[in-house]
Design goal:
This is Indoleamine 2,3-dioxygenase. With 489 residues, the protein is mainly α. It has 20 helices and 9 strands. A 3-stranded mixed beta sheet has the order 1-4-5. A two-stranded antiparallel sheet has the order 2-3. Helix 11 packs across helix 17. It starts with 34 loop residues before the first helix and ends in an 11-residue tail after the last strand. It binds protoporphyrin IX containing FE (HEM).
Length: 489
């Protein structure tokens, strides 16, 4: 028997705002008992700048979660503690490998209740961290959005989060639209499926337009050096000063080190929903396509050693469950493959793939501008300094040559960032049905080759960068632009 088509309300998903909560995020917790948390986050920048944050948090009492009532309050508390935790870990000269009980005790409890990891996730920073400037205007409009909390107080940081909020809001209505398409495909209603796909493709172009506005108010240098360090996780962070991860102290004395990925847009359920509903499969990085049998396709779809897949563990539990349940009923790709004689349907389906691939294409340009270029500049500068100065300045913002147990990271299986993103983009085009679209996607990929415009070319005489580590957001990547690898996580 066919599993039922998921009902949005069962997963806390809004038919209008998608994965953003239907009830707007709270600007503060109503119970004055939590004033201390609110006061710390409201003064985060000053406390970091004056180097007093750790002292203040060390003296903070362990507040109980008993005063949290509605879901919106739990979400606000999660967001506050996530900001405090990352500011505590990364907001000083050297990172802290321990979180005091005043943060870890409530954070662990709240995370368990909300089914999210006890770190700053996409939910902390984006989904549950915005407010509209005017209540009667939409939240899919960047001109009507503000953030509730930031680490740096900069417009750049707010903008970085708000671009994602606007994308989530504008993309939200695609969710019920495509659930309708799945139902229509079950009934064999070709006309309705086609219409849904056409509307989907049109809205996807809106999302790319919003994404391209990133550069308007988020400066790559500010992003790379000031914002990104606070988003870092505790996994694979030995070089940055967290060889074991972070100890979440709870006073029991039996705590063990924990390691988590950093906050990243790769944790957006919306983009993964698009992939699932269109039948796009992401293989482990470096694995080539193998157009095999149905069983082979199903097997690959179930692969868990896959970064994109792994990011689901960082989504709110109900959202991740929703993706799982949608995958059980996703039938659009098969439906299109069964109706290849219907041009309108095939063109509409291919248009969605093309638009999503274009979104990923623009995103690669952004990553090159915001991560690859600044990390090259840092390396170029550090090469001209004495090794001692370079060593002293080494921190999370600095990419470095990495050796693990005497072996280069690449040898132990590092994943190159740009090839990973390019593979995700190329996989987006793979299910295309129209001969023309397939040829177009292939040509586009080939003509781009190794050097993306924004990434530029490596300096002349510069050493080959394939063993250089690049700190992404959720993960550490290698710089090598030509070949993929296997993820380390
Ligand atoms: C300055 C802006 C941005 C930068 C520097 C950036 C950087 C990155 C990086 C480094 C990764 C690799 C995974 C990691 O290390 O976390 C990644 C993946 C990803 N990012 Fe972004 N990102 C930006 C904005 C966005 C926005 C606005 C979205 C849309 C919501 C987005 C969606 C994704 C997705 C879906 C992935 C997973 C790979 C894929 O599915 O293609 N990113 N990003």
């Amino acid at each position: 028997m066919q599993p039922p088509i998921p009902v949005l309300a069962d997963y806390g998903i809004s038919p209008v705002h998608g994965f953003l909560p239907d009830t707007l995020p709270l600007s503060r917790l109503p119970d004055p008992y939590y004033n201390k948390w609110e006061a710390i986050v409201a003064n985060l920048q000053a406390l970091i700048l004056s180097r007093r944050l750790r002292g203040v948090i060390d003296r903070l009492p362990i507040l109980s979660t008993i005063g949290l009532e509605h879901d919106a309050e739990w979400r606000r508390a999660y967001s506050l503690l996530g900001f405090m935790a990352h500011a505590y870990i990364w907001g000083a000269d050297t990172p802290s490998d321990r979180l005091p009980p005043s943060i870890s005790v409530p954070l662990l409890e709240i995370s368990e209740r909300l089914e999210v990891p006890p770190v700053a996730t996409y939910a902390t920073l984006v989904l549950w961290n915005f407010k509209p400037l005017f209540l009667d205007e939409g939240i899919d409009n960047l001109e009507n959005l503000a953030t509730l909390s930031t680490f740096t107080g900069s417009l750049d940081e707010s903008w970085f989060y708000l671009v994602s909020v606007a994308i989530e809001a504008r993309g939200g209505p695609i969710i019920p639209l495509m659930l309708n398409a799945i139902a229509a495909a079950q009934r064999g209603d070709v006309i309705l499926v086609t219409k849904c796909l056409q509307a989907f493709a049109e809205r996807l172009t809106d999302l790319t337009t919003i994404l391209q506005r990133m550069h308007e108010s988020c400066d790559p240098t500010v992003f790379y050096h000031r914002i990104r360090p606070f988003l870092a996780g505790s996994k694979n962070m030995a070089e940055a000063g967290l060889p074991n991860g972070v100890l979440y102290e709870d006073g029991s004395g039996t705590e063990t080190y924990r390691q988590y990925s950093g906050g990243s847009n790769a944790q957006s359920s919306l983009i993964q929903f698009f992939d699932i509903v269109l039948g796009i499969e992401h293989r482990p990085t470096g694995e080539k396509p193998n157009p095999g049998s149905e069983t082979e396709r199903e097997y690959r779809a179930a692969q868990r050693h896959n970064f994109i897949r792994d990011m689901r563990r960082y989504m709110p539990g109900p959202h991740a469950r929703f993706l799982h349940d949608v995958a059980l009923v996703a039938n659009i790709r098969d439906f299109v493959e069964e109706h290849t004689d219907n041009r309108q349907l095939c063109i509409a389906y291919d248009a969605c793939l093309t638009m999503l691939s274009a979104f990923r294409d623009k995103h690669i340009g952004i990553v090159a501008r915001y991560i690859i270029n600044p990390s090259r500049e840092v390396r170029a500068r550090s090469r001209s300094r004495s090794p001692e100065v370079t060593r002293r300045r080494q921190n999370i913002a600095v990419s470095s040559r990495k050796e693990q147990d005497g072996e280069k990271k690449r040898g132990t299986g590092g994943t190159a960032l740009i090839p990973f993103l390019k593979q995700a983009r190329d996989e987006t085009g793979e299910p295309a049905v129209e001969e023309w679209t397939r040829k177009f996607m292939k040509r586009k990929i080939k003509s781009e080759g190794v050097g993306d415009f924004f990434a530029g070319k490596p300096e002349e005489g510069a050493p080959v960068e394939q063993d250089v580590e690049v700190k992404g957001l959720a993960w550490s990547w290698t710089m090598d632009d030509e070949v993929g690898g296997i993820c380390l996580y």
